[in-house]
Design goal:
VC0802-like; binds aspartic acid; binds magnesium ion; eight-stranded mixed beta sheet; six-stranded antiparallel beta sheet; Carbamate kinase; alpha/beta; single chain
Length: about 425
């Protein structure tokens, strides 16, 4: 049994969906397809959520644009306008439209999940029906019925015990060869929709691989495999042929966009090989992540860039305060305001944090501590990480730029730069 995860870029057009079908058809094993939303749909739905919450009149236009995009792809794929797919797609848009006509709840993250989840529901519906049209019978699974999470909206934590019971019941492979299901989504025990965090579809595929003990997980991407830098950023990026789980975890942790940070843990525990490969050149092997490959790893420098960061410096107003004794308080605060911390540094009287930028969360944090602490920040900075750094690699990244914070260990160098 294999699991194939396809990202949004692979099914962003009718051509993309046709290419996807060709790949699935070329395999003869039992397969579960885990799919993301089409193209930039999740971004569009995020914007719709924001507008909905702020009661902006942009909502309707953006909703129509999204509907048009999906109908356009559907029209190209299904010449028979009586095909059942039209009814299903329209039903989903009706449900979304109904939600958008209601008042926002008081919980932004809850509304976010209820709205943004339509991206994956739509993509899997269209793709599953198209596979059927191409002569590949398959079952569409609503993953929310078996992949259970708590109610941390936008970052649902997996209920492993319950999911381990339900998932094998749903993916039984009795007279079925192919299942199509949504990445990124989960459901609470009371059947509310949750999401697992942006780019969470890889994680979904890894969880299902773990629970179902699959032979291999393949993640199909628009790049040849795991590269030593994002090729859209550095055009001389090279592919890594094999890496260990450990190295993959490190790369993901520092923000390499190829794999969702939580993805590797489950497959590592069961030693399931993960192949990251191109849906364009689909006969190429891509990158293999597995146990045995530690010695075979290339030691190429790997460059990782995180943009849209904020460097926050916190100082007690009263200088008698010893910061080191209170670090745990800060970490608790960041966790409470759900700020994603990427790097920290402290001295006796100040604490610096490089975190993902979020005006809303930063403001909440500031409001909470402003009485006792002075909070300063450098907005819109970048965090550059170099694994296996060399002098040449460091020069390449930092030349001509202002470094405002720097950290180095034997394997890893990090720079916050303007
Ligand atoms: N569609 C979601 C996103 O864009 C999940 C994913 O693609 O992995 O974040
Ligand atoms: Mg995506």
């Amino acid at each position: 049994m294999n699991i194939f995860k396809f990202g949004g870029a692979s099914v962003n057009s009718a051509e993309g969906v046709k290419n996807f079908v060709k790949i699935v058809q070329s395999f003869k094993d039992e397969t579960i397809v885990v799919l993301s939303a089409m193209g930039k749909t999740t971004n569009a739905l995020e914007q719709i959520t924001k507008d909905f919450y702020e009661k902006s009149d942009e909502v309707e236009a953006k909703f129509l644009e999204l509907e048009l995009y999906h109908l356009h792809i559907t029209n190209e794929l299904f010449p028979n306008k009586e095909d059942v797919v039209y009814k299903k797609v329209n039903q989903l848009f009706d449900q979304l439209s109904n939600y958008l006509q209601k008042e926002p709840t008081l919980d932004y993250d809850f509304d976010y999940d209820q709205i943004v989840s339509f991206g994956e529901l739509l993509s899997t519906c269209i793709v599953s029906e198209y596979l059927r049209l191409c002569g590949l019978p398959n079952i569409w699974v609503d993953i929310r019925t078996c992949l259970k999470t708590d109610n941390t909206y936008r970052e649902g934590k997996i209920d492993w015990e319950l999911s381990q019971k339900l998932v094998p019941q749903v993916f039984g492979f009795n007279n079925t060869f192919v299942y199509v299901t949504q990445g990124f989504l989960g459901g609470t025990i009371t059947n509310q929709t949750t999401t697992l965090g942006r780019e969470g579809s890889d994680y979904t595929a890894a969880i299902l691989s773990y629970i179902l003990d699959v032979d291999k997980l393949s993640i199909w991407k628009d790049v040849p495999g795991i590269m030593n830098a994002d090729p859209k950023w550095l055009d001389d990026a090279e592919k890594l042929d094999r890496i260990s789980y450990q190295e993959a975890i490190e790369l993901a942790f520092y923000g390499a966009k190829v794999i969702h940070p939580k993805t590797i843990q489950p497959i590592k525990r069961k030693k399931i090989p993960l192949q990251v490969r191109s849906f364009i050149n689909y006969n190429e092997p891509g990158t293999l992540i597995s146990t045995a490959s530690k010695q075979m790893e290339q030691q190429l420098p790997v460059f990782i860039r995180k943009q849209d960061q904020v460097l926050i410096s916190i100082r007690p107003v009263d200088f008698s305060f010893i910061l080191e004794e209170n670090l745990s308080v800060f970490f608790a605060l960041f966790a409470k305001h759900r700020m994603k911390v990427n790097l920290t540094q402290n001295s006796a009287i100040s604490f610096s944090v490089c975190a993902d930028r979020s005006e809303r969360r930063l403001k909440d944090l500031q409001d909470e501590i402003s009485e006792h602490f002075e909070v300063k920040y450098n907005d819109k900075v970048e965090l550059i990480t170099i694994r296996h750094h060399t002098k040449e690699a460091v020069d390449r990244m930092t030349k001509g730029r202002e470094i405002i914070l720097e950290q180095r260990s034997r394997d890893t160098a990090q720079f916050v730069i303007v």
